[in-house]
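Q: How would the structure tokens look for this protein?
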Amino acid sequence: MPKLPVIKGGELVKFLESIGFRVTRMKGSHIRLRSEDRRATTVPVHGNKDIPKGFLRKIIREDLEISLEKFSEVYSKYKGK
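A: Here is the predicted structure in token form.
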């Protein structure tokens, strides 16, 4: 199982936009994103805080509906590693 990266809320929003999600609404410090195929997620952007590992895992598995391995692969390409 790949190790999950440490990601800040704003960074996750930018990554999701790069893979086809778009911001549909913002309420307070929470940003709602939706993809063309109707997958949706909410990302908390609380200043400069990291997204908790368990919550990031929930977003990947349930909201993005991809495996952790696939996420790690796509995210590392996005970061240029």
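The CA atoms of residues 39 and 65 lie 8 Å apart.

The mean pLDDT is 94.

Upvote if useful.
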